[in-house]
Amino acid sequence: MSIPGDALLCYCRPGFEPELAGELSERAALAGHPGYARTERNSGYVEFLGADAGALTRALPFQSLIFARQKLVRIAELRGLDPKDRITPILRTLVITLSNAYTFGELWVEHPDSDEAKPLAGLARSFGNALRPVLRKGGWLTGVDDPRRSRLHVVFLAGDHVLLAIGEAGDSAPWPLGIPRLRMHADAPSRSALKLEEALMVLLSEKERERLFREGMRGADLGASPGGWSWVLMRQGLRVISIDNGPLQEKLLESGRVEHLREDGFHWQPRTPLDWMVCDMVEQPRRVAERMATWLREGWCRHTIFNLKLPMKKRWDETRLCLDLFEKQAEKTVQLRARQLYHDREEITVFATTTSLSRP
């Protein structure tokens, strides 16, 4: 079935709309689908218009996007809705736009993750409860939530302003607002553990996690103090060498699975090849990209996850430059994925491997 729609709708971290707009514009043009991005600073979303949305969504798979938390196909924009009856115009728009061709597996009523839109959370929740049974009765929604089917998204920008969009299963984030809800574990040495936990969820499929993390594998955590990322690797079954001149949490060392070396993580190298290397050091992004490439080029590890701290300006340009530099200096075939995660701030998280991957 061809995907209807008049634009792409992507969520992002508030303040990074220019980076997402630049990424979408450049990649769409390279794919032969030029268009233009429409957004406002700190709005938390970007609309990309002027291209065939169906063709564009196939040319720009969600997994390839870096600054997008969510990728949807916008099918309509409704303004001036009457607060007394928002449901009727939505149903009418669905009939006109989709011609009863869709039965959705789920309905998500959302709002952008921005300070301006957060007061809409209560409205979104109550409206979803009202709309859901109406859609089921009309045959637009399955009787039981089915994540294998496309989702209908109703996105409130204001009380009288709504976007209708479709989220395709397998080509969008499986979490509302594109945010995986993680809780800080009581035993985690620091909140930075949430970054690596989210990276494993977002950048790897369940089957890939099972294949790439096995009991007894060995890994290194560069710049480990106080040990958040080492803790995550340990919980994945790895034996970890934690490299940092600073201290580690005592419980981590008591586990017997973590060895602490007080050395400079940026210059240390292992005596024998490792399965994994992770790095969340505060350093210039190009220096980090070059050093991470050295690890893969020299065969010191097979898989790596690392963060690139971005500058305040030209962050999309710096991202593209660093990733190109990394792939060039690795001097071998590397599969690479990158994303600005919810738990990231002025940074992106990169996964790279020399192992062949095939996502389900």
UniProtKB/TrEMBL annotation:
One Pfam family per UniProt: RLMM_N
Which residues hold S-adenosyl-L-methionine? Answer: S192, S225, P226, G227, G228, D244, D264, D280
**Principal subcellular localization:** cytoplasm
Q: What is this enzyme's catalytic activity, as reactions?
A: cytidine(2498) in 23S rRNA + S-adenosyl-L-methionine = 2'-O-methylcytidine(2498) in 23S rRNA + S-adenosyl-L-homocysteine + H(+)
Instruction: Establish whether keyword S-adenosyl-L-methionine is in the entry.
Output: yes
Cite the Ribosomal RNA large subunit methyltransferase M THUMP-like domain residue spans from the record: 85-165
Domain spans labelled Ribosomal RNA methyltransferase FtsJ? 190-283
Compartments in which it is found: Cytoplasm
Q: What is its EC number?
A: 2.1.1.186
Instruction: List the catalytic residues.
Output: K309
Please state every residue range assigned to the domain named RlmM ferredoxin-like.
7-72
Record keywords, A-Z:
Cytoplasm, Methyltransferase, rRNA processing, S-adenosyl-L-methionine, Transferase
Family membership, please give it.
Belongs to the class I-like SAM-binding methyltransferase superfamily. RNA methyltransferase RlmE family. RlmM subfamily.
Q: What does this protein do?
A: Catalyzes the 2'-O-methylation at nucleotide C2498 in 23S rRNA.
What assembly does the database describe for this protein? Answer: Monomer.
Protein name, UniProt field: Ribosomal RNA large subunit methyltransferase M
